[in-house]
Amino acid sequence: MRVKVVCVGGGPAGLYLSILLKLQDPSHDITVHERDAEGSTYGWGVTYWRGLLDRLTAHDPESARAITDNSVSWSEGVARVGDLTTRRPGDEGFGIGRHRLLELLAARARSLGVRLEYGHEIDPAAGLPEADLVVASDGVHSALRTHHAAHFGSELRPGRNHYVWLGTTKVFDTFTFAFVETDHGWIWAYGYGFGPDRSTCVVECAPDTFTGLGLDRADEAESLALLEKLFADILDGHALIGRSPADGSSPWLNFRTLTNRTWYRDNLVLLGDAAHTTHYSIGAGTTLALEDSLALAGALRETDLPRALARYERERKQALLPLQSAARYSAQWYEDLPRYIHLPPERMFALLGQRHSPLLPYVPPQLYYRLDKAAGQLEALRRFKRWLGPKVARTIHARTLTSRK
User: Fold this and answer.
1) DSSP bridge pairs for 202
2) CA–CA separation, 221 vs 243, rounded Å?
3) Among the residues of 201-344, which ranges form H helices?
4) Tens of pLDDT, residues 248-283
5) pLDDT digits over 156-173, tens only?
6) What pTM did the predictor assign?
7) Any bridge partners for residue 267, and if so which?
8) Integer Cα distance of 234 and 42 in angstroms
9) In 31-142, which residue ranges form alpha helices assigned H by DSSP?
């Protein structure tokens, strides 16, 4: 059955959904509206893992192949704490420039007959575009969602730490963590490559460190100069590259976790960051956006729209639960950094890899490390850990919900 779909927002979620719907039925009338000019995207590199690539390949081998060919990969992590360095093997990860990813998805969408309208902003006050389905894929600041915030039950919870998203000409060949102690506390960076000559470098610190270093008062040039000095050991003399916001606001942010009570209203549905966000430290934002698109496209095979949207919401909310839990504990690990940073580097790095665990905040770090090491050798302990972790997570989640009422 031919349908007319309008996607508001030309990020990965909206573009990939348009591709999937055209592949399902070339007669579908699909338009993607993006308020910014083509090629003016923000951001540096995004990360993903093999599981996403396998799912993309199963649904559209052509776009998956293009993404793979334009990505870099790594299979270990490096942590530098002061003058000490430790390495750990890990799962194969991938990085691709956000700009390049959008170029590839836009080209694939156009080749299938999707109309892409750049420099065209949809004003929600003027009513929804005329279509069978309108998809709000316009990010965490979604104008369509905000216009109906009471219906969606939107909630934004700011995190404690400050962070800034930067680029660098230093090409990291592994996923790199660097922790630097200053007179005002610890500041740290995550670095990963996304192309032959660029990497992403995310810098984070606690509020006292942020103000103590004067980052709350520094302009962008002053901030970059200070950060280049602090992280000179991992940058090897390379520059950090900023992106001054167009509105003149500070590039430093507090991460905001977005949740919505419901994801659809009549023929309007939320997708990607317009529906949910998870802390950047688990590197899942783009993956979850694309998986939303896969789920929504699959649900829309159902001819009854309300039933299809209800199925989409139900499936994605269920799938997100473990990742949202992991993201909460990951953010908490960094907020509680002094609890772990003075461990021997190999132990600190091991617990960094365990930061998604709901048990870790409640067990002394040295004891958790020994138990985790033993669990890796004894199947009975592994089973006990797998059983106990979710029970603790559910109990804490229930208490949190109760405390908000």
Assistant:
1) 165, 190
2) 11
3) 207-212, 220-230, 232-235, 285-299, 305-335
4) 567 899 999 999 999 999 999 999 999 999 999 999
5) 999 999 999 999 999 999
6) 0.91
7) none
8) 24
9) 50-59, 61-69, 98-111
